[in-house]
Amino acid sequence: MKSKASQSQGLLIFRLTPTQDFAIGTLKVREIVPYTKLTSLPHSHPTVLGAACFRGQTIPVIDMAAAVGYRPLDKDELPSCSIIITDCQRKVIGFLVRGIEKIVECNWRNIEAPSRDLGEEAFLTGVTRVDDKLLQLIDVELMLSKVLPDSSEGQSAFLTDVQREQLKPLNILLVDDSLVARKQLSDALDGLNIPYQVTADGKDALDIMEAAVAAQHPIDLLVSDIEMPGLDGYELTFEIRNQPTMASAYIILHTSLSSEISVGQAQQVGANEALTKFDVNELIQSMLRGAEHKNSQES
Q1: Same domain (yes/no): 195, 137
Q2: N or C end of the chain: which has fewer CB within 10 A?
């Protein structure tokens, strides 16, 4: 039995408005620095305030409040603001926020998916309560897709006919709480005409896998995000590995975090691979290794 990775993670709590607290996972955060003078970036998105040099690297700085639909920062507010420097989706980005509150430990099981009534453009991946106050987790990936679209978005992978036929028979399940990441994953497989199922929730994924076993068509390959409300990728992997009827699935965990810690924990709970998302060619190559793994088990 694999050892169970802790679901507890640090959350950095900050203010975008005078009354509402927001958060991101601390694994995304490189450091927090006071506001510094920014150099303008011509033709950039309106919420990109400029660029600054940190530790020898020039990075864009985004007004996070404006980026998610709140009142933009005024010039007279800037001196009291802080810049959260993040490492997400292989990009180092600065987010300017009105104030830093604190860092807390939070269990993923205590984080709920945001209400569907908020719509897909709510820029939230989850909600929870800390000290009896509502805390909203920002969907950094969705925000970046709007402010700094990735030139690799919509990228396609090349497969030979033989490789495509290796993937087509597999029962594939994709899991990610981020709308942007789900679209990236789906687009990659749609472009290759590879069938799959997709869900936004780890608990739903476990239910789908149990139903697939009952239908005698178990999931062969699971591609799951790590950071998800309710049941995260580590916990999902642990649950699968400890149920003999599902344990043979090839599990690929992917994360927006450029972190060796994430990879180490993925291996600890029994994942076959861990990727820093998103590179469609890396993903497809991992899935092909999953197909080879399945074939070796059956031979």
Answers
A1: no
A2: C
Same domain, 15 and 119: yes
Cβ-contact 86, 140 below 8 angstroms: yes
Both 201 and 117 in one domain: the answer is: no
CA distance 49 to 97: 12
Sign of the CA dihedral 107, 120, 81, 150?
positive
Structure confidence at residue 277 (pLDDT): 63
pTM of the model: 0.73
Considering the domain architecture, whether residues 169 and 204 belong to the same structural domain is answered as: yes
Report the chain's mean pLDDT, rounded to a whole number. Answer: 87
Domain that holds residue 95: 8-147
